[in-house]
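Researcher: Re-running this chain for the archive, since the previous output was lost when a drive failed. Same request as before.
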Amino acid sequence: MPRTDEARAALAAIQGGATPRDLESPTLEFKEQGRSEADALKTIAEAALCFANAAGGLIVVGVADQQAGASALQGSTLEIDAVRRRVWELSRPPLTVDAWEERLGDARLVLVSVPQSPELHSDPQGRAPRRVGRDCLPMDPSEQMRLREDRLGIDLTARETDLGLAELSEPALETARDLLGKFTDERRRLARLGHEELLRALGVVTSEGRVLVAGQLLFAKPAQGSPPAIVYEYRVTPGGEPKAIERVPGPLLTSFQAALQLVRARQIVTPLNLPGGQQVQLEDFPSLAVREALANAIIHRDHHLTGPVNVIHSPELLAVVSPGPLVSGVTPANILTHPSKPRNPCLAKAARVLGLAEEVGRGVDLMFREMISAGRDIPRIESHHDHVRVSLVGGRANTQVARFVAQLGEQERDDTDAMLVLFRLCTVKTASAQQLSPLLQKSVPEVEQVLRRLATDSVGILEPTRVTTRRTNPSYRLRGDVLRELGSAVPYQRRTVDEIDRKVIAHVREYGKVTNRTVQNMLDVEVQRARGILKDLVDRHLIRKTSRAQRGPGVEYGPGSRFPGKPKPRSKTGVRRR
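Model: Regenerated structure tokens:
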């Protein structure tokens, strides 16, 4: 179970000196038993309600969350049946949880697994809390209503409106036809349909021709005085004052295209040359990632709320903020692997037909892959009780990572798991399936299968470390040839100038010469990096070319005029030059 894996990884970290509070998550909480058994059971019941009304979770009882290290593992004396019974008694309707004990050293811990419930649960006083991030927050009546609709599958966008076809926007309908006309599959024929037939094919009108809320959102002319669908802000720095603000009116279909155009107008593109002579264009914010972030915001937002989607754009950061939390059951910690669960199925279906967005989760996968492939950080997704924020970090790209990914096979480039593993191993020397499980949002056995595939000779990206190779879940590292290609993109591979000088000088002192190939092998770098190192040493007169060949792999370098230990040349007066 992924939650149990998360808890055991956290407990191991606590034994290693971590503080439990720092390891809690939207689906994991540590509780100290305290002196009163009755208070402890009540506290567990409250935490269980929070998890049940969110995405479910695991409570570990017997851990002092503010203490660090093994001293935090204080243990619990609670009886398992008493825990189950008290949660049942203190929840309306009654909530069933699973509970069991585990021992960690001398400490007996009680683990309580809380499922995500199809019902909305409250305490005996009628209060219904929900887990948001690492906090348990009360829900007001409107939030409770929206959660009930989520749980029952009630789709606001499938309701009928009083609008007629004449009140729909001609430009929006033509935009739909333009989008459909670009497809090569059966959707292309939809572009030739009349208005009503097109809307019916998209599923946004009834059989009687009544426009649904989804059709209103996508195609209706905005009412006088209605708020904008999207507000776009451009800032020179992420925290600076807006230099440009655009309030983009509905309908969603045209506002979506307009907002994308505003972002594209300020995109910065860097050409990247590949070894084979091919050139790729690196965008500061990959267009597909921006498109998915914005599409998810307008399609899966909470349309009970009237505020706009906000796009905050600067050269270093692009953030998309949408009203309402993530749909019930989906959290930033499971969004990559949670089954498709759109908040607005009718609107989402029409958007997929139009090509605005992928299935829920698949679009998020795409965002992660695109950011890593462009040599950038992974997207940051935050869900709060009233909004979701997706942040894409721009700035200077890691071109060596981008170059390496561009040369991988299509199967690896399109594999989100492979990209996430590469991303993590560019920052840490080794990682096991247990350590990568939270990042990939999969169970340890599933992650182990991913790692084994990447370590096969046919893929050749990873290898198990020599010390752990016989273990069930070994630690993995990037292979030597991969490290050489990535070069300084891998921080733990970077060497200081002093370290490089010392290695090259020692080699020249022992063998009398050095070549580009020698530097590649000695320092685990690729040919361009080795060339740069040799040029720097020549410019500082530590070495000089000593072979007849002036270009190519056969060029040899020997001691230069400032080579350490080499006698300095004398002036005409016989005095050594300083």
